[in-house]
Design goal:
mainly beta; 9-stranded antiparallel sheet
């Protein structure tokens, strides 16, 4: 995969762990929840996926950006906030600041959850399957009654998921 811009940062995971990175965008008008954008990454060596380089689109290369890092492995999950400076230096907090997560669980056979998208296809919540570890891919559809694009996420019964949602201060 070609990087989308020159703005990037690299993370090295410990054995058995995998990090996902999300760009935190400002809340859309009329809401107090930030939208999340999962960042694409490349691996330094395809046989060794512990060193990942994450990329941010070219539109935002001259600005500082808030980043959320979710590291998952085994039965552990670590959540950190970070600041990516304009010169590509990543400053990771020791403790997550104003960030929380909750575990989703369903006892029904299959549960579909609707997520609202903003006009630019960003959404305020990201659902992560800790087993893969990756984001559960939503299925987009157009709701004619609401006149907007929505998505459905299929959750398996008796399985835990992490729902990541960030509320603006």
């Amino acid at each position: 995969m070609e990087p989308l811009s020159e703005k990037n940062f690299t993370i090295v995971d410990t054995q058995g762990m995998s990090t996902l990175a999300f760009l935190v965008n400002e809340p859309e008008e009329g809401t107090n929840y930030c939208t999340l954008q999962k960042l694409d990454c490349t691996y330094a060596n395809p046989l060794d996926t512990s060193k990942k380089t994450f990329y941010i689109d070219a539109q935002s290369v001259h600005e500082e950006k808030n980043i959320i890092l979710l590291t998952i492995g085994g039965e552990k999950a670590m959540l950190n906030s970070a600041l990516l400076s304009a010169d590509d230096k990543l400053y990771v907090s020791e403790k997550p600041a104003n960030v929380g997560f909750k575990v989703l669980f369903s006892e029904e056979n299959y549960d579909y959850k609707d997520l609202k998208y903003t006009p630019n296809f960003r959404r305020p919540i990201s659902i992560i399957d800790p087993e893969i570890p990756d984001e559960v891919k939503p299925v987009l559809y157009y709701d004619e009654e609401a006149n907007m694009v929505k998505s459905k996420v299929r959750l398996q019964s008796n399985k835990s998921y992490i729902a990541l949602e960030i509320k603006a201060e």
